[in-house]
Design goal:
The protein contains seven helices and twelve strands. The protein is an alpha+beta fold and 234 residues long. α3 runs antiparallel to α4. Its EC number is 2.3.2.6.
Length: 234
């Protein structure tokens, strides 16, 4: 296995099954963040992740972290929080603000530099990338964004400025997505936050098989129209 250098003249990718084991999932280097290349990557279970100013790295880890909307977990304490309904949650109301907020994590470092923000904002304008916004009064306090692949949604990043805001974004999106026939949310790599909400790991092979099937099931356009997502009933 070796890292493949992408051609500037083609958006073709090598098979995700050829990714390295260490570092887990590293597949290719180079290329650009043009819409055709990004879409070609997501269609094959591949995503970019790299430090700003360095060469673009492309990944497809094994195992893959996923969340099935029907398996989402709402703890007792979170149910009590939801009953108070402190937030208003919207879809596709301010993608630019959400991705900019996801980049504002200096304590952790971020890969979401200006080049990445421009690329995904372009995907949003083309109708492929979508955002969920969490509002407290008129302030944006949380949210998430990602890329749709039919009945599968590739989650990219989320943020919280107040307690439970990103949880509310993901749980509200799960309900909305499932209501329109969405079946799987790609979380890429498992972490404590997503695991606490019901995400789990599956093999890359299983993920790629499901991606191949689910991306052929486009959801109704109404799923992605700018709208308010009704509050959770618990």
């Amino acid at each position: 296995m070796r890292i493949v250098k992408l051609s500037p003249h083609s958006v073709a990718f090598p098979s995700a099954e050829g990714a390295l084991r260490d570092p887990n999932g590293l597949l290719a280097i180079g290329g650009d963040l043009s819409a055709p290349r990004l879409l070609a990557a997501y269609q094959r279970g591949i995503f970019p992740w790299y430090s700003p100013g360095e060469a673009i790295l492309w990944w497809s880890p094994d195992p893959r972290a996923v969340l099935y909307p029907a398996e989402r977990h709402i703890s007792r304490s979170f149910k009590r929080f939801l009953r108070a309904n402190p937030f208003r949650i919207t879809l596709n109301h301010d993608f630019a603000a959400v991705i900019a907020a996801c980049a504002e994590r200096p304590q952790d470092g971020t890969w979401i530099g200006p080049e990445v923000q421009r690329a995904y904002l372009h995907l949003h304008r083309l109708g492929y990338a979508h955002s969920v916004e969490v509002w407290q009064d008129d302030a944006l306090v949380g949210g998430m964004y990602g890329v749709a692949q039919g009945a599968l949604f590739c989650g990219e990043s989320m943020f919280s400025r107040v307690t439970n805001a990103s949880k509310c974004a993901l749980m509200a999106f799960c309900r909305h997505f499932a209501a329109f026939g969405g079946e799987l949310i790609d979380c890429q790599v498992l972490n404590a936050h997503t695991a606490s909400l019901g995400a789990r790991e599956i093999s890359r092979r299983s993920f790629l098989q499901q991606l191949s099937e689910l991306q052929r099931r486009p959801l109704a356009a109404e799923c992605w129209a700018a709208q308010v997502i009704p509050p959770q009933q618990v």
